[in-house]
Fold:
Amino acid sequence: MGLISGIYNKISRKNEILELTETFEKKLTDISSYYEDRIDTLYEHFDYASKDTDSSTQTAEELKYVTPASREDLLAQCMFMYYKNPWARNIIDITTNFICGTGFNYRTQDTNEKIQEYIDSFWNDPENRLITRLSEIVTRVLRDGEIFIRYFRYKNGRVIVRFIDPGEISEIFTDKNDREHVTNYHYYVQTYVDDQNNTINAIDTRISAEDMQHIKINVDSDVKRGRSILEPALKYLKYYEDWMFGRIVINRMKSSIFLEEIIHGGSPSDVATLKNAQTQRTNITSRTAYKLPRYGTKVIHGDNIEYKWSDPNIKADDTKEDGRQIKLSIAAAVGAPEHIVTSDASNNNYASLAASQIPYIRKIQAFQDRFSYELREMFRRVICHGIDIGKIPENSKENKLNEKSMKEIRRLNAALEVIREHKDNEGILEAERKIYEIEKDPYNYEEIPCATKTSVYIEWAPVIVDQELPLTKSLELQIGLGLVSKETAAARLGYNYRKELRKMEENKGNNSDVDTNNNRFKPRKSAKVGDEK
Structure:
């Protein structure tokens, strides 16, 4: 009997193994069918990546000047990644937030208050909505590599701006002898039907360069079109997405069987009877499966039945570093720390986070400098329009040192050269002190007629909050040395100087707290992004 029972147990166990194998194979078929399209996409991604890395057939000129078809394809991929890929979206959004921060302050270089009021009305115009569109400008430039801003000028002095999609600018025309001198833009849109079933007529026109501002990045100055910051990271974003998908498939396959019910010493009919007695359900592929016991279920069985929880044995740690290396490649491609890409700082401590942010902060500041230039150009166009229609006077006045003071400063500078040769530190300090006192005294200045200045000062708030305390101390020292005005210092810290002065006057009820010793003339207006007039 013992021998027969042993043989029977072996046959029963073999049947159980065959049944489990069959169940696993069915589950694998279910998964393969369910993810068939996604797996095909995975192979397409790797095919694309292999083509993308093969630059042996591309010349330097082809890499620099992409064809319109290639540019549209790259733009579509970057757009797709921005809207569908969480890491690409995170890169663009966080970089935009770092660049814009809490906004910026702007003020005209000209002392005429009418000019400041004129550009304030342009910035706060509800048709322009530039208070909220600043972040959109930055996002578009980072995501698309460029933005086209069209200007509509009206005789009443109003200036309205609108954005044009890069795909709707089919060609940029330049001077035949100067590739960087743009003459006009070809704005072309085919007839189409919108979401409300309205037919939108085609647009086919040329826009003068005077009415269009084109901001482009990541290309040389002689290249007509910009390129997205996501472009170098595209294939690595696909690699990481596919790596994640592979892990999901493996996890689902290995965790598809949760509980084994092992019957010792039973016949095949006993196994079939117990199996048929269990609660069944239908899975996503219309196959029959068996439900697990509900939470809190009481199970009564004999010694011949054993319940065993399956160990999925996923071994995620074996591939963890592979995934991180792909993330680091993405971070390197966009020039950002790893935690900027993933919003996960668990791999770093505070010191390493601070160190890793330094090059990224420099990059953000470089972007701010670039957008400062473009914002100054935007304000310049607006001021010039105000001058053309007579809303702003063509001529203005500026305060310059009078001839007597200039003559004294020239004499002191000449003396400084001699003193420096003799390395007389006390004499150097004394001469510089006298120069400073001459430049500080408002009575040494006189108003001189000049053309209205179209330039605008742009000051961004600190990139990160931790910079505020050391920056405040530094600016306090610079104010004490007479290197900067309080107005400039306030702008660097993100404050609206004009607005803060007004608040202090209201709080004190007089002007006693308004110290203008370090402001040579009446403080010019400034306006912070987000402030209404």
